Each structure stands twice: as structure tokens, then as C-alpha cells.
């Protein structure tokens, strides 16, 4: 009976060790430029998002909207050629006001993650 308990405990531990990396394999936003909640004296030329892992370009996007909900971005978000965990999207000249950045990315595991943050241009 003790051998059965030992075997069951070993199997549970092995399962937990194998599943743990998969559970944490989703792309997570590490930083952004501009930062969430930033109040900027000058408008940014682009939005840059840095994730904890390589982003799949075909399944990823960045959208910038004005405070009233009107779309700002016109181009497609692209990964940085030197670091595929970094995505950029160029923005046209932004006027003073509030802006929202919405992002959706897929990491190497294929799971899609989304997020949003705001910034202000004075």
C-alpha cells in the first residue's frame, strides 16, 4: 500500500513539473513606451510594447484610439528586427488629449492575450 502512495505522489509531482512551464508560457506585457498613465509633453512617434517572449506577428496587433474612441493608428504593428519580443506601431502626429492603446498578441504557445492602457499628451 505504501508503494502505491509513493507511486501516486511521484506521478502527481511529475505531472505538476511538466504542466507548470505550460501554464506560465503566455506572453505578458513587461513594459511600454509611453508608459501606462504617462502624461507626455510631446507626442510619441510610435508605440512600443515589450513582452516576456517572442510575439507571433500574424496574430498580434496594437490599436491606438483617441479619448472619444476615434481611431488613430493607420499602420500594422511590427516586431522589432533585433528583438522579436518587442512590437512597434507608428502613429501620426497626435494632438493634445487622452489616448488608449489596446493590444492583442499571441506568443509561441499560440494563446492570445489582450490588454489596454491609457496615456495623455499635453
UniProtKB/TrEMBL annotation:
<feature type="domain" description="CopC">
    <location>
        <begin position="26"/>
        <end position="121"/>
    </location>
</feature>
<protein>
    <submittedName>
        <fullName>Copper homeostasis periplasmic binding protein CopC</fullName>
    </submittedName>
</protein>
<keyword id="KW-0479">Metal-binding</keyword>
<keyword id="KW-0732">Signal</keyword>
<dbReference type="InterPro" id="IPR007348">
    <property type="entry name" value="CopC_dom"/>
</dbReference>
<dbReference type="GO" id="GO:0042597">
    <property type="term" value="C:periplasmic space"/>
</dbReference>
<dbReference type="InterPro" id="IPR047685">
    <property type="entry name" value="CopC-like"/>
</dbReference>
<comment type="similarity">
    <text>Belongs to the CopC family.</text>
</comment>
<dbReference type="GO" id="GO:0006825">
    <property type="term" value="P:copper ion transport"/>
</dbReference>
<feature type="signal peptide">
    <location>
        <begin position="1"/>
        <end position="25"/>
    </location>
</feature>
<keyword id="KW-0574">Periplasm</keyword>
<dbReference type="Pfam" id="PF04234">
    <property type="entry name" value="CopC"/>
</dbReference>
<dbReference type="GO" id="GO:0005507">
    <property type="term" value="F:copper ion binding"/>
</dbReference>
<dbReference type="InterPro" id="IPR014755">
    <property type="entry name" value="Cu-Rt/internalin_Ig-like"/>
</dbReference>
<dbReference type="InterPro" id="IPR032694">
    <property type="entry name" value="CopC/D"/>
</dbReference>
<dbReference type="InterPro" id="IPR014756">
    <property type="entry name" value="Ig_E-set"/>
</dbReference>
<dbReference type="GO" id="GO:0046688">
    <property type="term" value="P:response to copper ion"/>
</dbReference>
<dbReference type="GO" id="GO:0005886">
    <property type="term" value="C:plasma membrane"/>
</dbReference>
<keyword id="KW-0186">Copper</keyword>
